[in-house]
Amino acid sequence: MCVLDDLLSEASKLPEDQKLTLAHRLLASVEPSVSEQVEQAWDLEIRERIARFDRGEACTRPAGEVFSDLDRLLRR
């Protein structure tokens, strides 16, 4: 644990943007690899969602409402 404590101590001295970059890289390092087929499927899904939004076919809500609903659900 000493090594982890030392790393945390050093990381806490970093500027916020570098802390976020470090956290992102650490999390990404333990994510399972994604196949090219999955990447392509997500790319297609994203493009289709954007197109539906642009055509006015998507139901949307302000993010604040969504987060308020989530907060309420999590407090139960």
Distance, first to last CA: 36 Å
Strand proportion: under 5%
The gyration radius over C-alpha positions equals 19 Å
Q: How many E-type strands?
A: 0
Give start-end ranges of low-pLDDT stretches. none
> How would you characterize the largest beta sheet?
none
Quaternary state of this entry equals single chain
| SSE pattern, N- to C-terminal | HHHH
Strand-pairing-aware structural class: mainly alpha
Helix content: over 70%
What is the averaged pLDDT score? 95
Broad shape: extended
Number of helices: 4
Structural features, described:
The protein has helices spanning 2-11, 16-29, 36-54, 63-75. The protein is built from four helices and no strands. The mean pLDDT is 95. It is extended, with a radius of gyration of 19 Å. With 76 residues, the protein is an all-alpha fold.
Summarize this structure as a short list of keywords or feature phrases.
single chain; 76 residues; mainly alpha; 0% strand
Short characterization:
By secondary structure, this protein is mainly α. The chain has helices at residues 2-11, 16-29, 36-54, 63-75. The protein has a domain at 39-75.
SSE arrangement:
Elements: H1 2-11, H2 16-29, H3 36-54, H4 63-75
